[in-house]
Amino acid sequence: MAEDRHDMETAALDWVIRLRDPGFDGWEEFEAWLAADPARAEAYHRLATADQDMAGLLAAGLLAAAPPVPAEAPANVVPLRRAGFTRRAWLGGAIAASVAGLVGFGMIERQPSLYQIETAPGMRRTVTLDDGSRIALNGGTRITLDRKDARHATLDRGEALFDVVHDEKAPFKVLVGDATLVDVGTSFNVVRDGRVTAVQVAEGAVVYNPDSEAVRLDAGRRLRAVDGDPHIELAAVAPDAVAGWREGRLIYDGQTMADVAADLSRWSGETVRADPRVAGQRFRGVLSLGRDHDVAGLAALLDVDVRRSGREWILSPRTP
């Protein structure tokens, strides 16, 4: 039996609210809810987009904030704590009230063409676009897509593998940081971490910034660039090693320990950080990751100490 639309949107709104809580830790439950029905993901992302829109309107003073819930609220008013979020995170409750109002009046359908898809650390997801192109998202990733243009995507942060259906008349473009990638019939992996962009090509070719540097990356080539730095690092990569994270394999040929830590964070859902003393240390090898996310068990292979510090794993110099 199909899920009632009102019930689905109510549940989606609840997830939007819960995910606003900095202490949210129900990622497995959230992933299971999304996976049960593709329509749930669509409902969630429409409401999440509405949330962002309402935040902008509130900041611009174009929408009045909702009045606070009184201390002695009527029985039919759900207290903020029971909804799983704080007033500070939701601008005094105004955004939640505004989004709920959109659902109530049916205005949620009139959304802008841009929308975002996000995965939590440790969570992976594949999106198929209208043209048949596929985007596989690693953990801790956010992309922005356009309902009116399936040949355009923005990688805001994280890691994604793009399997693009080639069309010479409408090249697929990926915006990442201050750069543009244009496909030439391609399967390519992109990482956006802070100000750093890394690209690896498995099939076909990609052109990096066609209107300026115009660096062509054919299959088996990789690129690393930092925003604002004219130097672009180019090197070789084994095509079958590109996006090994999809099979639980992280393959390195001289990447830094800081890069390894970032990869482990996306994959495992744990926070992994490289001590400054080893952050620049180069690593060559293959990490085979299991479902148990045993970061500590990688110490010997990485030739570092791995220790727990609060909620983080720290990669630090080995002690005698």
UniProtKB/TrEMBL annotation:
Domain FecR protein: 116-206
GO molecular function terms listed in the Swiss-Prot or TrEMBL record: sigma factor antagonist activity
Domain FecR N-terminal: start-end pairs: 11-48
Protein keywords: Membrane, Transmembrane, Transmembrane helix
Coiled coil: none
One Pfam assignment: FecR
Gene3D superfamilies noted in UniProt: 2.60.120.1440
Family matches, as InterPro entries: FecR, FecR_N, Ferrdict_sens_TM
Residues that span the membrane, as ranges: 89-108
Name this polypeptide is given: FecR family protein
Organism lineage string: Bacteria, Pseudomonadati, Pseudomonadota, Alphaproteobacteria, Sphingomonadales
